[in-house]
Amino acid sequence: MKNRVVITGLGVISSLGNDIDTFWNNLIQGKSGISHITQFDTSDYAVKIASEVKDFDPLNFIDKKETRRMDRFAQFAVAAAKMAVSHAGLNIDDRNAERVGVYIGSGIGGLATLEKQHRVLMDRGPRRVSPFFVPMMIANMASGIVSIQLGAKGPNSAAISACSTGTHCVGDAFRILQRGEADVMLAGGAEATIMPLAVAGFSAMTALSTRNDEPEKASRPFDKDRDGFVMGEGAGVLVLETLDHALKRGANIIAEVVGYGMTADAYHLTSPAPEGEGAKRAMEMAMRDAGLAPEEIDYINAHGTSTEYNDKFETMAIKGAFKDHAYKLAVSSTKSMLGHLLGAAGGVETIISALAIKEQILPPTINLENPDPECDLDYVPNEARKTRVRTALSNSLGFGGHNATILLKEYEEK
């Protein structure tokens, strides 16, 4: 028998707020967190917009000395993790530390540290490179530092799978709990790559929106006038527990994790497989894992990047997986408001899916003004929708052909 797994705590750092209530209220109001980049001078850049975290003070979560040894992405991870643990009312101490694990990934890791230390190397020579350079840069360090900060001694790892990272981390943590290898897992993703090198690189691929004059309207998934995604940053961390453990300590249960699917396109470095074949199989796998029929799914938080091929092929994948029911379920892309948080996207979007179930309201896809005829599903356009939400599925589709789907359900005693 597999353990049932539930969500009991949420923590988020984002352009729409650095606490769950602010974040959720802004999201369901359809606000955009996208604005002009402030972290560096974009005068020479074709792309001048991003979804930056605002008003973040790491000292609210981390000792001043320790912050100097952490890249921004790791600071985000620690902040979101501590927030999630507090939200869950969880105490980690010597009695339970070995049964509490961490599975937090990053698609890119400490890019700010890499850029800074490369400049040091070029300008001042190898002896001036920081001894903290490597541990600050490597992408697994979000998970490592969170375990150190919280004293969590259980299973510890980090998926690194581009834009699927956060969802893979949640799904892999779900499996650890199902198998009984831990009682509690902190899972999700963190990213902080709004840096010159990343913006230049994604821009060179023509992957980013150049709607610089209207930042808040730049991310427009499923809209005919979309011209690329908008980079975002932040972190999303969830507390997952076995149901038995949650019930024993009287935890507040937000939703249940019931299914996980992961596939590969085996097709192209950056483009999704034709007709979203890999994404279709990931959704089908998650539903089989949960023992749910397509007709039992109420909502999909789409990967929905606002790029030409993703939006079209993900729509085709949904139609392939859900057949006629595809036109009866609701789909929305919260990247229309948050931008694309890369490795953190899956963590944040799993949080959104859990809140949709808890609050019985669907966040909108904003900026859907001129729907693409090839994207003809119900994308909850422009305004949040109060409705019955029993199940929610969240997709993440990453460069390299990584596909991950997590499936949540309203918690019910059985």
Automatic annotation (TrEMBL):
<comment type="pathway">
    <text>Lipid metabolism; fatty acid biosynthesis.</text>
</comment>
<keyword id="KW-0808">Transferase</keyword>
<keyword id="KW-0012">Acyltransferase</keyword>
<feature type="active site" description="For beta-ketoacyl synthase activity">
    <location>
        <position position="163"/>
    </location>
</feature>
<dbReference type="InterPro" id="IPR020841">
    <property type="entry name" value="PKS_Beta-ketoAc_synthase_dom"/>
</dbReference>
<dbReference type="InterPro" id="IPR014031">
    <property type="entry name" value="Ketoacyl_synth_C"/>
</dbReference>
<feature type="domain" description="Ketosynthase family 3 (KS3)">
    <location>
        <begin position="2"/>
        <end position="410"/>
    </location>
</feature>
<dbReference type="Pfam" id="PF02801">
    <property type="entry name" value="Ketoacyl-synt_C"/>
</dbReference>
<dbReference type="GO" id="GO:0006633">
    <property type="term" value="P:fatty acid biosynthetic process"/>
</dbReference>
<keyword id="KW-0443">Lipid metabolism</keyword>
<dbReference type="InterPro" id="IPR000794">
    <property type="entry name" value="Beta-ketoacyl_synthase"/>
</dbReference>
<keyword id="KW-0275">Fatty acid biosynthesis</keyword>
<dbReference type="GO" id="GO:0004315">
    <property type="term" value="F:3-oxoacyl-[acyl-carrier-protein] synthase activity"/>
</dbReference>
<comment type="function">
    <text>Involved in the type II fatty acid elongation cycle. Catalyzes the elongation of a wide range of acyl-ACP by the addition of two carbons from malonyl-ACP to an acyl acceptor. Can efficiently catalyze the conversion of palmitoleoyl-ACP (cis-hexadec-9-enoyl-ACP) to cis-vaccenoyl-ACP (cis-octadec-11-enoyl-ACP), an essential step in the thermal regulation of fatty acid composition.</text>
</comment>
<comment type="similarity">
    <text>Belongs to the thiolase-like superfamily. Beta-ketoacyl-ACP synthases family.</text>
</comment>
<dbReference type="Pfam" id="PF00109">
    <property type="entry name" value="ketoacyl-synt"/>
</dbReference>
<dbReference type="InterPro" id="IPR014030">
    <property type="entry name" value="Ketoacyl_synth_N"/>
</dbReference>
<dbReference type="InterPro" id="IPR018201">
    <property type="entry name" value="Ketoacyl_synth_AS"/>
</dbReference>
<keyword id="KW-0276">Fatty acid metabolism</keyword>
<protein>
    <recommendedName>
        <fullName>3-oxoacyl-[acyl-carrier-protein] synthase 2</fullName>
        <ecNumber>2.3.1.179</ecNumber>
    </recommendedName>
</protein>
<keyword id="KW-0444">Lipid biosynthesis</keyword>
<dbReference type="InterPro" id="IPR016039">
    <property type="entry name" value="Thiolase-like"/>
</dbReference>
<dbReference type="GO" id="GO:0005829">
    <property type="term" value="C:cytosol"/>
</dbReference>
<dbReference type="InterPro" id="IPR017568">
    <property type="entry name" value="3-oxoacyl-ACP_synth-2"/>
</dbReference>
